[in-house]
Amino acid sequence: YFLIVFQLLAIAATAQCAICTKTASQIGEEAGKGFNVGVLYLAAMPFGIMGYVAYRWWKNEKAN
Asked: pLDDT: is 45 or 16 the higher one?
């Protein structure tokens, strides 16, 4: 139950560094939303790779 609630809250959250927040606020509302989506898009690949490595590690440990 906790995991489902946490995931629903994480969908609405947009975290940025101070420089990205200032840049997004200066370029306007619509462009700022696109900037946020771009940051999340670029962050997806490293998290996907880490998830894959963790899954393979877990699967290997489970087999032993």
From this structure: 45
Q: Which amino acid is at 45?
A: M
Query: Is 45 in contact with 37 (CB distance < 8 Å)?
Result: no
CB atoms within 10 A of CB 8: 9
* Reported pTM: 0.53
Minimal CA–CA distance to 35: which of 49, 48, 20? 20
- CA atoms within 13 A of residue 28's CA, in its CB half-sphere: 2
Give 8-23 pLDDT, tens digit per residue. Answer: 666 656 666 778 778 8
Taking the CA atoms of the chain, what radius of gyration do you get in angstroms? 17
